[in-house]
UniProtKB/TrEMBL annotation:
This is Inactive metallocarboxypeptidase ECM14. Belongs to the peptidase M14 family. Inactive carboxypeptidase that may play a role in cell wall organization and biogenesis. PANTHER family: INACTIVE METALLOCARBOXYPEPTIDASE ECM14 (PTHR11705:SF147), PROTEASE FAMILY M14 CARBOXYPEPTIDASE A,B (PTHR11705). It comes from the Eukaryota. Residues 130-435 form the Peptidase M14 domain. Keywords: Disulfide bond, Metal-binding, Secreted, Signal, Zinc. One of its GO terms (molecular function) is metallocarboxypeptidase activity. It comes from Lachancea lanzarotensis.
Length: 440
């Protein structure tokens, strides 16, 4: 009762209302067999089993606290899930642009371009001090476009099931002499709604690329010779839902054939090696009933195939969490050999090394199929954005799973936004240098 009152008060005073995960924990099992863990946990619960991460060495899964003693081999990684969730939401007092989130004001907040010295840095320092909701992120994108009108264009990729805009930022110095082929790097974040650190990192990349152009040699070189297409929030409906209803939501919010279950896993929806759903629509990995059924993947396909067809995509970087891994294609099968493997491995290890040099953090390099478990269970890696982009559009493609290694999992506290941004921006610079290397 007391808790209900506190929650209600929290909602009334403007805090974020979200599904309650009191008495839930996250267990780690030392096995690479995700099917075994699903069966073990599924025996005791009717709810879909929420696998947090897996790799060849371990599987992390959310479980009710009452089960922990009965599940042999469970190492508790997160003891108080509800408290860990609460610490990821920002203090409303730290909003970078007032009057954001003040729904009582019907006026759209006025945003003015920043002068390019201290106020840009000050705004970004506040912006990156906390995770930000969709409205704040989209206003920040507007601000970047207003401040850097010669470099930035916001483009509409498509609309979501709930009618939200899916936005891409096209960054380019439009230097036709130095980039006659429209060489492009594409970066996506937030395909999975709860992986907030991927969203903040994509925004961090935007801030560094723009602030450095005409100031630093490297950024000037990159933007003169490369175009960047960055989608910080690939799954706007899911992202909004993690702020308003359920911090641990993963899929989009699309209606399925089963009325009680919403959401398709966008990263199983792309039309490359797509396999039909073995899972029920309630499952976290539900792929839909046909390729590109998820509106986000379908819109993305149209956008890059039509609106962007003359751009030559040299690099694709998909930001996820967590595990600290650099994953190279393919996800769907370990039998499928990627082209140019030697150079792809050089790129992947180079990205990991660039991160280690910045922060000392270890990121493991492995094939996406091993990470997904599709070597053991066919179908687990089907229809991924990485495979689709690598096969159809991008010469080089990797997925980065960002921090951490499981202490917070998806619930990384906001103090890590900038450190993760910095270390992976080191990797992005390596990626740009790799693509611009004339010997390749
Ligand atoms: Zn993910």
């Amino acid at each position: 009762m007391r808790k209900a009152i506190i929650l209600l008060l929290g909602c009334l005073t403007g805090a974020y209302c979200s599904k309650d995960y009191t008495n839930q924990r996250v267990c780690r099992f030392r096995t690479g067999d995700v099917g075994e863990v699903r069966r073990k946990v599924g025996k005791y619960t009717e709810a879909p089993v929420d696998i947090w991460t897996r790799n060849p060495e371990f599987v992390d899964v959310r479980v009710p606290a009452s089960l922990v003693d009965r599940l042999e081999g469970c190492e508790v990684m997160i003891d108080d899930l509800q408290e860990t969730i609460a610490q990821t939401y920002p203090d409303p007092a730290t909003q970078p642009f007032l009057p954001f989130n003040d729904n009582s004001q019907s006026q759209v907040p006025e945003v003015r371009p920043l002068d390019l010295t201290s106020s840009l840095k000050a705004t970004n320092d506040i912006f990156f001090s906390q995770f930000r909701d969709l409205e704040t992120i989209y206003t920040w994108l507007d601000l970047m476009q207003l401040t850097f009108p010669d470099l930035v264009k916001i483009e509409l990729v498509g609309q979501t099931f709930e009618g939200r805009d899916m936005k891409a930022l096209h960054i380019s110095a439009q230097n036709q002499n130095l980039n006659p082929d429209k060489k492009t790097i594409i970066i996506t974040g937030g395909v999975h709604a709860r992986e907030w650190i991927g969203v903040s990192t994509a925004c961090y990349f935007i801030s560094r690329l723009l602030a450095g152009y005409g100031v630093n040699k490297r950024e000037t070189r990159y933007l003169d010779r490369l175009d960047f297409l960055i989608v910080p929030v690939f799954n706007p409906d899911g992202y909004v839902y993690t702020w308003s209803h359920d911090r641990l939501w993963r899929k989009n919010r699309q209606q399925t054939f089963y009325p009680r279950c919403f959401g398709i896993d966008i990263d199983h929806s792309f039309d490359f090696q797509w396999t039909g759903a073995q899972d029920f629509p309630c499952s976290e990995d539900y792929s839909g009933e046909a390729p590109f059924e998820a509106l986000e993947s379908e819109s993305w396909n149209n956008y890059i195939s039509e609106a962007k067809k003359e751009y030559t995509v040299h690099g694709y970087l998909d930001l996820h969490s967590y595990s600290q891994e650099v994953l190279y294609p393919y996800a769907y099968s370990c039998d499928a050999l990627p082209r140019d493997l030697e150079n792809l491995l050089e790129l992947s290890y180079g990205l990991a090394k660039a991160i280690r040099r910045k922060s000392g953090k270890m990121y493991h390099v492995l094939s996406s199929c091993e990470d997904r478990g599709s070597d053991l269970t066919p179908g687990l890696g089907s229809g991924s954005a990485l495979d689709y982009m690598y096969h159809h559009r991008a010469h080089w493609g990797v997925q980065l799973k960002l921090r951490d290694t499981g202490n917070h999992g998806f619930l990384l506290p906001p103090k890590f936004i900038t450190p993760v941004g910095k270390e992976t921006y080191g990797a992005l610079k390596y990626f740009c240098d790799f693509i611009l290397n004339p010997d390749l």
